[in-house]
Amino acid sequence: MRSVWSTIAISCLVLVAVIGCRGGGQIYQVKDAPIQTATGKEPSLEDVQKGIIAAGVGLGWQMQVAKPGEIIGTLNVRSHQAVVSIPYTTKQYSILYKDSNNLKYNAEKQTIHENYSGWIQRLDGAIRSRLTAAGM
């Protein structure tokens, strides 16, 4: 009976170790996404900036203008932090990994915590929606 419990305990420890050591997903980045508005008109740089900031803030991101044409977005979720650079023009924008804390980032393998991709995909979708709906 003792060996059965020992086997179960060892199996559980191995399972926990494997789950805890699993690698993350590939870094998800948005590069040169075209800006399309409902009216087809090209927005001003200020309109694009406002749309990106509103989209990020709506999802809980802290958005800060670094310079004209670039916003730094920071998302804090529990003990995790993701920081992205969002360069933009009146024609396109990108969402690029900048930094992170407690997200298992591996620069060599270009991997990160699996939740990161979902956060970036949601941010991208919100930005597209804001810029399209604005009708500029």
Task: Give an account of the 3D structure.
The chain is α+β, with helices and mostly antiparallel strands. The chain has a single domain, classed as TATA-Binding Protein (2-Layer Sandwich), CATH 3.30.310. Helices cover about 40% and strands about 30% of the residues. It is built from three helices and seven strands, in the order αββαβββββα. The strands form two sheets. A five-stranded antiparallel β-sheet has the order 2-6-5-4-3, with helices on one face. The chain has a two-stranded antiparallel ribbon with strand order 1-7. α2 packs across α3. The longest helix has 20 residues. About 15% of the residues have low confidence.
List the helices and strands and how they pair.
Elements: H1 2-21, E1 25-26, E2 30-34, H2 45-58, E3 62-67, E4 70-77, E5 80-87, E6 92-101, E7 111-112, H3 115-133
Antiparallel strand pairs: 1-7, 2-6, 3-4, 4-5, 5-6
Helix pairs in contact: 2-3
Offer a quick outline of the entry:
This protein has about 140 residues and is an alpha+beta fold. It has helices at about 1-20, 45-60, 115-135, and strands spanning about 25, 30-35, 60-65, 70-75, 80-85, 90-100, 110.
